[in-house]
Write a structure and sequence with these properties.
Elements: H1 7-11, H2 24-31, E1 35-38, E2 51-56, E3 62-68, E4 71-82, E5 87-94, E6 97-106, E7 109-117, E8 122-125, E9 128-129, E10 134-135, E11 140-141, H3 152-163, H4 168-181, H5 186-198, H6 202-215, H7 220-232, H8 236-249, H9 254-266, H10 270-283, H11 291-303
Antiparallel strand pairs: 1-2, 1-11, 2-3, 3-4, 4-5, 5-6, 6-7, 7-8, 8-9, 9-10
Helix pairs in contact: 3-4, 4-5, 5-6, 6-7, 7-8, 7-9, 8-9, 9-10, 10-11
Length: about 300
């Protein structure tokens, strides 16, 4: 799984519904939406905690500026249309692409639930970010500048340590730091779970994966990770349910198909395992690190008696 900077993501997840007024700037002013927004206003800028600033240009256009440390992206929101009390549509131009976005609001927070680009790609569907494999983030309005005692440098250093895989002890230590500072952040739980699994502490891994999907029920990669942990513990029924959820969210994901093939083998469902292994091989290049291992598993299974 990748840690993806939220410049493009956050820039699509900005506002709530508004009454019909003369212009987009009037709508935003009427709602008091001009200002700064973030997934967690108490934390400093970082790869997973960008800041979105909404303002009006001298010509009255609604402009957006999204920052994640040194990264930033500027955009313009136009054509704000009310859908319901909890939803609004608008067109959001970022660079060469214009996105048709549907926003959902709840409890003073906002997130994008649909986003289709002028390039024809579906970026967000039913609140699920199709490129990244997790739910779109909720944004809160940053009314003040209060933060936790973690500095921007410490925050960046902790994310680097949490996301690396060479030193599992450092992963666990730094992910724990992030979880303490941001207990509602699912990515750190997922990474710490992977580190626990790699060191053989499967029960702790399952607990962390469970926390990650509790926070973000659309976190497809974590369902697959928990499925593999259940598989390691011989819990085939739980494993199959989790990997199926991962594939419901991200169909044709090679890693999840490979996990399901192993589970089918455990359950004695030979033909279904063969079908999944074949599909994995059709989706990954021959140079992939898992290609030969998957091909060997398929050959072994095909040669086995029914």
């Amino acid at each position: 799984m990748r840690i993806v900077p939220l410049v493009m993501v956050l820039a699509l997840c900005l506002l709530g519904a508004a009454p019909s007024l003369a212009g987009d700037g009037d709508v935003m002013q009427h709602l008091g939406m001009l200002g700064e927004w973030a997934p967690n206003c108490r934390l400093p800028l970082g790869p997973t905690n960008g800041r979105v600033v909404l303002s009006l240009s001298p010509g009255g256009e609604v402009t957006t500026l999204t920052r994640t440390g040194p990264r930033q992206a500027a955009g313009i929101i136009r054509n704000v249309r009310v859908v319901s009390d909890s939803r609004v549509r608008w067109s959001h131009t970022l660079g060469a692409v214009t996105y048709e976005v549907v926003i959902e609001r709840s409890g003073g927070k906002y997130r994008s639930i649909e986003s289709i680009g002028s390039d024809g790609k579906v970026y967000i569907k039913n609140g699920f970010m199709t490129n990244f494999g997790w739910g779109s983030p909720w944004l809160e309005r940053c009314a003040g500048s209060s933060q936790t005692d973690i500095t921007e440098g410490d925050f960046a250093d902790a994310w680097q340590g949490c996301s690396q895989t060479k030193d599992r002890a450092r992963t666990i230590r730094d992910c724990t730091r992030l979880i303490s500072a941001q207990p509602d952040g699912p990515i750190a739980y997922n990474y710490r779970g992977l580190a626990y699994a790699a060191t053989g502490d499967i029960d702790k891994a399952v607990a962390d994966f469970s926390d990650a999907v509790r926070i973000d029920p659309l976190y497809a990669d974590t369902y697959n990770n928990r499925a593999w942990a259940h598989f390691e513990l011989g819990r085939s029924t739980l494993a199959l349910a989790d990997v199926q959820r991962a594939l419901d969210l991200k169909p044709d994901e090679p890693g999840s198909l490979d996990t399901r093939a192993h589970i089918y083998e455990m359950l004695g469902r030979r033909d279904e395992a063969i079908a999944d292994y074949r599909q994995v091989l059709s989706l990954i290049p021959r140079t992939h690190s898992k290609y030969q291992e998957t091909a060997d598993a398929l050959s072994r299974l095909e040669a086995s008696p029914r």
